[in-house]
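#structure-requests
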Amino acid sequence: MSSDSGASHSSAQDNHGDEIANGEGAGDSVEASATEDGGAEDDNVEELQSVDGGTEGLTFARTRRSLAQQQAEDTASELSMNMPDDSPSIQGSAISSPSGSVLVSQSPLRPHRPTSLQPFERRFSSRLSPSPLASPRVQSPAFLSPHSRQSSISSNLIFQQLSDAGSDTPQAPWDVVRWTKLKKISGQVFSEVGKRNFGRPTCLNVTVSLAIGTSKGFILVFDYQQVLKSIIGPGTQAVECGAITALAISADHSTIAGGHATGHIFTWELAKPAKPFLNIPPQDRASLENRKSDGHVSGVAILHLGFLGTRHTALVSADDAGMAFSHLATRGLGALARTVKITRILGRYPLSATSVEKPRKPSSVLAFAPLPLGNVEQPTDDMGLTALLTPYLLVIVSTTPVAQTQHKAPRPKDVEPHSALSACLAWFPAVKLKTPSSDSNIAVSKTKLVYCWSNVLTILDIESIVAPPLEKEKPTELRFRPRSRWKAEEAIVTVQWLSRSVLAVLTISQRLMILEDNTLRMTDSFDLLQKHIYHSDLFSRQLRPVIEQLDEEDTSMHGVVADAFYMSFRAYKGRLFLLGFNDVSIGTLSNWADRLMALMEDGDFIAAIGLATSYYVGDADKLTVGLPEDDKARHVLVQQKLLEMISASLKYTFSQQDHGDNDARERRLKELAEVVFTGLLSMKEFDFLFEEVYDAFEESSAEKAFFETLEPYILDDEITAVPPSVLKDLITFYASANRSSRLEEMICRLSTDTMDLNQVTTLCQQYVLYDALIYVWTRAIGDYITPLTNILELIKLVDFDVDETENVYMTSAKKIFPYMAYTFTGRIYPGGTFMEDGQAYSAKKDMYRFLFSGKSLQWPPGSGEFVLTQTDKSPEPPFPYLQLVLEFDASSFMSMLNEAFEDSFLNGEQDTTNDKQVNGTQRGSALTPTRQSIINILFGIMNTDNFDPEDIIYFYMFVARNLPKYPQHIMLPGTSLQQVLVGLCNYPTETIKEDCQLSVEYLLSIYYPPNPQSLVPLFEKAGFHRVLKSVYRGAHQYAKLLGEYLDDEEDEEAVFGCIADILRPSKGLMKKQINEIKAVIVKRATDLAAVYASQTATTLKQYAPDLLEPVLEAIKDNADAQYHYLEALIEPEKMQAGVTTSIDEDLPEGFIEHYVQLMCTYNSAHVADFVSLLKSGDLRLDPVLPALEKSGVIDAAVILMARDGLIQDAMDRLVKHLGTLETALTGLIGAAAETPDVANTEEAVHDLLEDIQKYVKVGIWLCQGQTLSTERTPESTIDRRKSAYGEVREADLALDELLWLDLVDTSMRLIRDTSTAVADHDAFIISSDIRASDSIDTARIVSTLRSSIQKTFSALLTSTTIPPSKNATVTTSTPESDSSTTRLHPRTQTQSNPSFLRILRCFLTRATHTYSPSLSHLRTVLAEIFAAYTFEETILRLANAFLDKESFEHVHEITELRKRGWRPRGQVCEGCRKRAWGPGAGGGVWEAWEKREGERLEERRRGGEGAREDGAKGRGKRPSQADVCADAEGGGGDEGALVLFACRHLWHRICLENARTVEEGDGLINRYFIIYYCNTFLYKVLRERRRLKKK
């Protein structure tokens, strides 16, 4: 059976007729589709009319065709293309199209330029920027809703008749596919009676009839009224041939063919179903070897079947065994009179039992289809093209006139490894396209084949190249080009063409996906698992050996064979037909009009309008919903329907009485307004928007939703014109809502061409919208003076006694400054875009002349009305408008003027009369103002009689800053500059001090006062430090300059750079100047150190070392500064990298002692490390010890005393301090049971234990140092035993032994007293029932102290052990050697030292006399001592074992390396340059080596002296002979003997003897050979010679 059952001639024309009418929306009836050529459809332009569309009176669009077509399609639906859009399915799948409905872009919010705090650093800006202001416009949710809502309520007549029974379960009208169960057909086929009579359904085929094959060999044919028209097979041989496994219907729908499980093929005429039209029996399996013709083998099921072209007698088929045949029957009178010619086109017959041929690789035909005919003649029509898919290849074969392979393609390499094995394919023939071009190449589409292997889908384009007329005999050439490829997430089991550009793909999990052919974009995906599609395992038995032999490393193999679905999944005229296990279903995909209508009928107008908009602009999938790709044709189809939907939606929405939540109603209205705006703007329907839509919102008092939706479109410049009536309401609404700021931005972005200027200006003045007022006046009329006069009138109304935030006029009045700044720099206010040159020139000139007019002017000119500045009718002052603005805000005016001065208009080059029309009147001639004239005018009016000093100071700053910038345009006399300079120094408030100082610096850069020193008091009073520095530096007054740096609190750290600069030797200062500078440094030392004491020390040490001591004395009241000062001098590296170097010996006396004293206070932890680095004599002990003891830095004191030789005093201080720590520790333990703060007590105990451990280590260090420095006289064994075991008194002990005794005694007393306190504490805890967790950890205390004792005794044992003598050796004899043979071994036993025992005996004696310890205490002490001793012995034993093992490994490694010998640097002799060894040396070398090795083995066997070792020890003393001999005499005259030196030179022995030089009386030459050019070896020889001469 063909894998695309609808691919017959007629069905192809029907399907592709829809393509021709793409976008027209007309479906053909069954009769028309069977007879008409698809290319002959009417091309009349469609019209849309309103019809009743629902119970609410909504209107929808219906396609109206010509009268003849209307009569033929009365009951048909409006549109022929019913395809899904790109919305997700109801199963919740995501939008599959990555380029689906595009969101409306949103611009970022407008950036505002911040203003500077300094008046002359800021630039005026309006609230509008040149870039469009974005507004948060909410995207319409219409076609991005979380569920897809489309319906298919219109379909062709034939399918409406099929679905008359309706679906058995309710479905939502917006389902992607509306499935209908064909109840009548299902009832007859799947009922018990039907199954009993006909068998189980096995396959399906659909064209103008619906044919179902059954397991009992019957074919049931139904019409579209679900009436069983024919039962094919009863009473014939067909029912005896097994189940129907394949079906095919001819191109004219008159003949049907059925393939059976036994290999039989029958064709039937539907008009005469009583007997078969043709019978093609299979070949008998037993007679295959003697067969006379081809054919299927009996017992093999026919899996695929199809008709070729329009003929009833030409078929192709494929079976389960992987064989395919073409069948061509002759014309005759009846089935018996016809003969069938069968040609094998694929596969091989099975091997017989006696065959010796190698078994073949199993195969099967997984997919198979002949090319159907299109609606236009093609060269391929007569070729009988058939496509076949096996597990390994795609094969396309032409069957006529002879079978020939046209194309082969292997399985794609990107097939998922070890995936399910599946394959399917479907043809789409060439069809005639509806195009205006007469070019046939463009008017006809290409033939296409889609085929799938596993999860990889490929589309193959086939192009036919016809031979020229002169070469008629040449066959048609076919070109195959794989165009595109797509990968699914799982295996694809069947594929069908829904139209020329739309594919339906079914995966192994029964998920249906809709793909666009052009982009292979998945536009829809939904699950069909609940449909229980019929599928069968047809291929696994044949391909089981392939699966069972699966190799994990072979990625080309599959893991499982998928079931076959092709016989149950059919597409015809855009509809899907499913054969299930229990029913037959039809699915209709909705088209664009169906979906819109379904949404409207459901009441979701917002989604419907949004979806229609996406159809109009082309964001949604056009092909799959039946819309043309051409924009113009698509707009014609959608526009009128969209307008009608909007009208109906507005009518319905505002006709409803909503008494519910007002917020919800506002949200709905806002959403409706948003989608309406989006739709109408996409169609450029501005008139409809501001007439129909606005009227509907206005009548329902819903202007808020309309205006809020309109706002972002205006701000984004998408709407630039609004009708006057709507604009008036817009202004009123926003002004009433106190949203004037946003309103002005909107007005300033609208075009003034459509405004009612009188209305707008009146409203702007009424609601104080001066930004909008200025914009309208300047853009609409070109009048820049009237807005200025309006703001001047507003300034006169400003009440300065009211808070600025509450003054309604203040904010608007201040807009005069950005307005003037924009105009004077040629920019449009408030947008900021630049004007044209002519317009800018006129605007600037008019504005300057009005503002700097010396008297009041008439405005408008000739009106007789003067613009006055005085409200009390008093006389107008000179320059009235300028004075009014300056009195309002002089600071802002100067900032504006500072910006205006940057414009080239004031350069004075345009000082010509202006005879142009300005504001509609002729102006008199006047000079254009310049920078000079403006400053002169301001000098004339900015005086103390008219303005306060707070205002005048801004003018002075303005002059001082602009004079250096424009020296060629501004020239002022010295008196004016002096006036400005003095005025800047007398600033009124501290807030502008920095601005005034900066202005003075600007001024002094171009103005040079005649006597700068006279201004110094003025600068000092003003506190202008930078100015004073400049003055002093210019006058070479460096002492004052240094003082000024110290006075400048904002730049204090620069004083060190100043000192370095003025005191550097190359400065060349006189001695008097240097002394003055040094005097200032000493006098201001406190201030200098307060800035940075460390930097002070570093700078003085480099440039003024003689001041180090005076400065230190000067800062004696600041100990912290002194510490950092000395630290930078004594330990500069410690501050930088933590590296300490030696102390500078050039430092003044007493600095180190003072530094240590201060360190005890500020960094006591570092004292010990510091003093340990000092040399003897660097530090005097007397002034330091009190500070050390006071601060508790005992370790440093001990180090210093030991360094000065006061060893016993150092130990006494250490013992005393340990006693203090013991007292503190026992006190804490005694009070720990009653303390409420256990954590604090625990922390204090921890700190004490750390101190005890630290000072015990200090004591060990002290004792060890003294022990090492003590020289002991050797004692005899008797004296040593007497001193160890005799009576010992403390007076007999040496100094180091006394130190150890004191340390051991102190440590033992510490643990004894602490243990007693711990025992008392634990007893109290037990008796008081206190939890152990609520008290201190006494076990840790005891273990810590025991660890200290163990360390003490370990150190004592180590220090008192006498190391073995290096030269002491003993003579031993070995049993293996002769009695006369002796060996010398070093003595490894350590000698006994009596010091340990003497110290121990004295300790026990002192303990007995001092605190009379009990037996238990002594036992504890001894246990600790012996534990320490045992620990030390164990450590030593382990260390020795490790060392021995490591030494053995090193010796073994050296021995192995020595055995390797030396490798010569080459293969030739250094003397004769002949090859000495290796390839080419000759056979004599090998024979000599064999002879020598034999001699050596013989010597060893006889027990004689073994062969001598090669060479020396590797130090170059003796050359190594490569397997020949050891010395010069051993080789005799053997010419093959070689000598190898340590320098890797190789010689023949004979060559070396000939080259040597004999020296008389030198015995060395008899033992060594010298290579003259080897310097390394010569050096070794000479060294050996000197050694021998010494002996």
